[in-house]
From TrEMBL:
Acts as a processive, ATP-dependent zinc metallopeptidase for both cytoplasmic and membrane proteins. Plays a role in the quality control of integral membrane proteins. This is ATP-dependent zinc metalloprotease FtsH. Homohexamer. In the central section; belongs to the AAA ATPase family. In the C-terminal section; belongs to the peptidase M41 family. Its main location: membrane. CDD domains: RecA-like_FtsH (cd19501). Gene3D superfamilies: 1.10.8.60, 3.30.720.210, P-loop containing nucleotide triphosphate hydrolases, Peptidase M41. The lineage of its organism: Bacteria, Bacillati, Chloroflexota, Chloroflexia, Chloroflexales. Binds 1 zinc ion per subunit. It is a multi-pass membrane protein. GO terms for cellular component: plasma membrane. The gene is ftsH. Residues 210-350 form the AAA+ ATPase domain. Zn(2+) binds at H440, H444, D516. The keyword Transmembrane helix applies.
Length: 653
């Protein structure tokens, strides 16, 4: 390593070396030797006729001697040698006239024929003004500085209540409907708003009133904010964007002041669009005392309600677009006609919507010819627009990591596995643990393949990913919006397939089924208490106080049924779970040979796909695994207690 490889360091070293060189040159320049004479010695030299020339400057006398004199008592000599060695005699001299003055000095100099030069120090006008008025100017400047600082503080206090919304003009729209995919129904709803902003006279002539508020409702990542920007871009009007949390401050009244300022700005620039993201931050129900309610939030909400009612029909139109994924917590006054009287649902895209979103995100990227967006759309059920954008970005990162020039289908597969299943983790396991995990995952895959209305198995692996030691991935053939009773019963049996395989093949159960039991219990409780899929409970809807938007499971509200009904519900859930567990055990016992072959294939290959699983179930033999195909990690990490949580539409065991 070169210690002088740093460019700035070399420049600083060169600067200091040059400075030292200049200093040495200046210091070594020879200066004339000058003797400092006492005033009495100076008079002696004048009387002796040895003074040739003098310069008088107030009380300072400088001059030149005719004959050099040596330094005597009280006299010193300076300069004359660049090596710092003072000479013994000098021609130039200096002396100081006493403060009381000497009236005989000038006649004496004239008598001796000395050349007299008198100099008066001339000061510039600016220097004189500074010396005269400098202290006064400094004091006045300091006074005005303090007044200005105080004014800034007061201005900051008054601007504390101003809106912090960001304004985007409609001259150069950044987003249009062409860049929004997968939300065709929402775009059709908002087209009317765009047309009103472009041609308000056509509606006003007929007495029609456009909705003052449009509420975009949908899960996170579905493109609600993008839709609002597209409306402003299509209409070509100013767009004020802010978040509801920016209205709420520590001091009561600041939020209401910011709301007034925001709507005043929108009216001055109308027609305009005001977009408020995460409306539930200030729009929650008033008077509940829960969910973070306080006086400041309620005053801000009241001001929003007043401003929405205060729109005049003759004024320039201002439309409010708000977004939330919690419409159930909003105050009813916000949702009444005349305020947010139009709700647009922005849901998860279907397969065609996902394909359109993928085409938007791969646009302009070097994508290989083997990438088919229609296949990727079928492989990503339950993905929102943000998830698909993340998928394309992860694929590009994988391609860059492998130094590829184009993004291929293999990079998309790696990205999808990382998002859905998690990152591969090196975990050091012995053969017994690997065998238990292999039978566990083989049980999931086999039970799913033997039952009707089951999603096909896409991949089975015993390589640890994320928090799971093994993963069985299912890929639905299409989007499901309604689930039958048979499909849900198959899901319960599939979840118990891993525990059943351990019981049948190993003869001992482990902690690996924790997540399976949790998901199965939640699903069975919904089937029995909410969906009426139990003969014991019939059509009774038995909630557990979880419908309140402000209370979680730990602080659930009162039940809407008796303790006896709750006991019957628990018994019905337990019977359903035990019956599906018995079904899984029976299927695996009857197909023990297929279970052993699946487990052995997992031990040999560590990862098998859908074609290999189907071949083993048909009784076909797989080719021997490649040499070195088994990847046994060498780095131990902490073993998790549960399995991975599934993404909607893709089951992970």
């Amino acid at each position: 390593m070169n210690p002088f490889g740093n460019g700035p360091l070399l420049r600083w070293i060169a600067f200091f070396l040059g400075l030292m060189l200049v200093w040495n040159i200046v210091a070594l320049r020879p200066t004339p030797a000058t003797i400092n004479l006492p005033y009495s010695a100076f008079l002696d030299q004048v009387q002796a006729g040895n003074v040739e020339r003098v310069e008088l400057r107030e009380q300072q006398v400088q001059g030149m001697l005719k004959v050099p004199v040596a330094a005597e008592a009280g006299a010193t000599i300076s300069g004359g040698s660049p090596l710092g060695v003072a000479p013994r005699e000098a021609t130039n001299f200096t002396s100081t006239i006493p403060g009381v003055g000497d009236q005989e000095l000038l006649p004496l100099l004239r008598t001796q024929g000395v050349q007299i030069v008198a100099e008066v120090e001339q000061r510039s006008v600016l220097w004189s003004v500074l010396l005269t008025f400098g202290p006064v100017l400094l004091f006045v400047g300091f006074f005005f500085y303090m007044m200005r600082q105080q004014g800034r503080g007061q201005q900051g206090a008054f601007s504390f209540g101003q809106s912090r919304a960001k304004m985007q003009t409609g001259d150069r729209p950044t987003v249009t409907f062409a860049e929004v995919a997968g939300a065709e129904e929402a775009k059709r709803e908002l087209t009317e708003v765009v047309d009103f902003l472009k041609n308000p006279e056509r509606y006003q002539q007929l007495g029609a009133k456009i909705p003052r508020g449009v509420l975009l409702v949908g899960p996170p990542g579905t493109g609600k904010t993008l839709l609002a920007k597209a409306v402003a871009g299509e209409a070509g009007v100013p767009f004020f964007s802010t978040s509801a949390s920016e209205f709420v401050e520590l001091f009561v009244g600041v939020g209401a002041s910011r709301v007034r300022d925001l709507f005043n700005q929108a009216r001055r620039n109308g027609p305009a669009i005001v977009f408020i993201d995460e409306l539930d931050a200030i729009g929650r129900q008033r008077g509940t005392g829960m969910g973070g309610g306080n006086d400041e939030r309620e005053q801000t909400l009241n001001q929003i309600l007043v401003e929405m009612d205060g729109f005049e029909t003759s004024a320039m139109p201002v439309i409010i677009i708000a977004a939330t994924n919690r419409p159930d917590v909003l105050d009813p006054a916000l949702l009444r006609p005349g305020r947010f009287d139009r709700q647009v649902t922005v849901g998860l895209p279907d397969v065609r919507g996902r394909e359109a979103i993928l085409r938007v995100h791969v646009r302009g990227k070097p994508v290989a010819n083997d990438v088919d967006t229609s296949i990727l759309a079928r492989q990503t059920p339950g993905f929102a627009g943000a998830d698909l954008a993340n998928l394309v970005n992860e694929a590009a990162l994988h391609a860059a990591r492998h130094s590829a020039r184009m993004i291929g289908i293999q990079h998309f597969r790696e990205a999808l596995e990382k998002i859905v299943l998690g990152t591969e983790r090196p975990v050091l396991m012995n053969e017994h643990e690997r065998t238990v995990i292999a039978y566990h995952e083989a049980g999931h895959a086999l039970v799913s393949s033997l039952l009707p209305e089951s999603d096909p198995v896409n991949k089975v692996t015993i390589i640890p990913r994320g928090r799971a030691l093994g993963v069985t991935e299912y890929l639905p053939e299409g989007d499901r919006f309604n689930y039958s009773r048979q499909y849900l019963r198959t899901q319960l049996a599939t979840l118990f397939g891993g525990r059943a395989a351990e019981q049948v093949a190993i003869g001992e159960i482990t902690t690996g089924a924790e997540n399976d039991l949790q998901r199965a219990t939640q699903l069975a409780r919904r089937m029995v208490g909410r969906w009426g899929m139990s003969d014991e409970m019939g059509l009774l809807f038995a909630s557990e106080g979880m419908e309140s938007p402000f209370l979680g499971r730990e602080m659930a509200g009162p039940r809407d049924h008796s303790e006896a009904t709750a006991a019957r519900l628990d018994e019905a859930v337990r019977q359903l779970l035990e019956e599906r567990m018995a079904t899984a055990v029976r299927l695996l016992t009857e197909n023990r040979g297929t279970l052993d072959r699946l487990a052995q294939a997992l031990l040999d290959y560590e990862t098998i796909d859908r074609q290999q699983v189907e071949a083993i179930i048909r009784g076909e033999d797989l080719p021997p695994p490649p040499v070195g195909g088994r990847t046994q990690p060498a780095l131990p990490v902490e073993r998790p207690s549960g399995m991975a949580q599934p993404r909607p539409g893709i089951a992970v065991a």
